[in-house]
């Protein structure tokens, strides 16, 4: 356990002792600060910084397109028809899966809908979906529309797990009790891995086990989880999961998304699904048969040709993750967030509160601060002081020190700025 000190020299010492410090040099930082006051970028929970290898990776595919045209699909170096295969191993490492349980495709909510087609199969007796209250709006809209599509009223079909009065985050025991009480009515548990607003990292194995005991299917939105905390999706027997790649995974704005489907579902004939050309077994794909011969694993949920430029950008980031190691990154992340909380607690200010769990196992990189007055104005002052986090209505400021490229000194500098703005 680190015994923290609230001094600049101590923060700099932590950075000198950081075995992952060199990875910071592999990222571009927007030139929005000054030499004396460089930018503090604490917004990897919304859009990760660009790895320096991204441009070369994308340009290499553009060059192949220019020089090879359609023959690029079958070139010797990273043929486009199988480009995804280079991503499956590194992505599987990050989410704790087998490579064949992973597919890289589409956008997050598109994948969520495609997998809900298969795993939300309501009946008259079991038709409800359990999700957390205050889920990201896209999850709410997706779930509501799926419920309506099947002819149910969202007011009756959606159960929202809520914190206790006066609390900001969910207690695991309350969530598990809710599953036990309503389990026979629940067709699907569709939860976030990390709540976008509070930063709470839910107990995914406990949720999965409790839901499966009641006969429910289980899916997770890992948009704020993948690349943030280590996962064991295969081991936990999660049915499916979806995530984007432009946050902690640094693939660029609108980057291609990913999904997980547990191997036990790889070829289930009773699962309905939508299909397209890319659902076909690649061994016979170009025989252009009229009848679908489904490829096994998560790839069987693919529909269309692969977005190569976006995948090239993602590959550049996954290469960095593979070298750093998600367990190593997690240790540094825990230290960064703990140091941030230590410094914030030293302020004892009545003007804000921390709504992210204190338990290391219940949070990732993100720390969410609720301000009681003039929240947007306070955030604007932070940006004027060369700090980029983000503001969420009505009164929450999110900051996320990311272990790949943020430092302890940046955490210390952030709190100095935060204290000056809050006190004035």
Q: Termini, distance in Å?
A: 34 Å
Assess the beta-strand content as a share of residues: 5-15%
Quaternary assembly = single chain
Q: So, CATH architecture of the largest domain?
A: 3-Layer(aba) Sandwich
| CATH hierarchy class name of the largest domain | Alpha Beta
> Would you tell me the structural class of the helices and strands?
alpha/beta
Shape: globular
The total strand number stands at 13
CATH topology of the largest domain: Aspartate Aminotransferase, domain 2
What is the overall number of helices? 13
Tally of domains: 2
Largest sheet: 7 strands, mixed
CATH homologous superfamily identity of the largest domain? Type I PLP-dependent aspartate aminotransferase-like (Major domain)
> pLDDT under 50 segments (min length 5)?
none
Strand order of the largest sheet: 2-8-7-6-5-3-4
What is the helix fraction of residues, given as a range? 25-40%
**Cα-atom radius of gyration:** 22 Å
């Amino acid at each position: 356990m680190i015994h923290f000190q609230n001094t600049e020299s101590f923060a700099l010492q932590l950075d000198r002792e950081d075995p992952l410090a060199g990875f910071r040099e592999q990222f571009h930082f927007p030139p929005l600060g000054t030499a004396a006051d460089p930018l503090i970028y604490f917004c990897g929970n919304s859009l990760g910084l660009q790895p320096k290898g991204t441009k070369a990776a994308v340009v290499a595919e553009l060059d192949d397109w220019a020089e090879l045209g359609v023959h690029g699909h079958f070139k010797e170096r990273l043929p486009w028809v199988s480009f995804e295969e280079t991503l499956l191993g590194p992505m599987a490492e990050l989410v704790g899966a087998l490579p064949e349980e992973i597919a890289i495709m589409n956008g997050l909510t598109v994948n969520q809908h495609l997998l809900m087609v298969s795993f939300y199969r309501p009946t008259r007796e079991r038709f409800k979906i359990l999700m957390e209250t205050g889920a990201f709006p896209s999850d709410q809209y997706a779930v509501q529309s799926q419920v309506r599509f099947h002819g149910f009223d969202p007011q009756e079909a959606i159960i929202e797990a809520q914190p206790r009065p006066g609390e900001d985050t969910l207690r695991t025991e309350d969530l598990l009790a809710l599953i036990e009480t309503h389990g026979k009515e629940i067709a699907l548990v569709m939860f976030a891995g990390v709540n976008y607003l509070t930063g709470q990292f839910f107990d995914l194995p406990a949720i999965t086990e409790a839901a499966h005991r009641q006969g429910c299917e289980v899916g997770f939105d890992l948009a704020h989880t993948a690349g943030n905390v280590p996962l064991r999706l295969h081991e936990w027997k999660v049915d499916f999961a979806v995530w984007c790649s432009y946050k902690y995974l640094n693939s660029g704005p609108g980057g291609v998304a990913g999904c997980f489907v547990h191997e036990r579902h790889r070829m289930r004939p009773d699962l309905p699904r939508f299909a397209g050309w890319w659902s076909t077994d690649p061994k016979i794909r170009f025989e252009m048969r009229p009848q679908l011969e489904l490829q096994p694993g998560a790839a069987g949920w693919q529909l269309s040709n692969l977005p190569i430029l976006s995948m090239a950008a993602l590959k550049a980031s996954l290469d960095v993750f593979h070298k750093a190691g998600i367990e190593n990154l997690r240790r540094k992340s825990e230290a960064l967030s703990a140091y941030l909380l230590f410094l914030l607690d030293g302020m004892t200010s009545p003007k804000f509160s921390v709504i992210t769990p204190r338990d290391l196992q219940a949070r990732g990189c993100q720390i969410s601060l609720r301000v009681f007055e003039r929240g947007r104005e306070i955030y604007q002052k932070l940006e004027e002081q060369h700090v980029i986090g983000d503001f969420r209505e009505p009164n929450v400021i999110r900051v996320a020190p990311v272990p790949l490229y943020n430092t302890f000194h940046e955490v210390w500098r952030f709190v100095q700025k935060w204290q000056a703005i809050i006190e004035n």
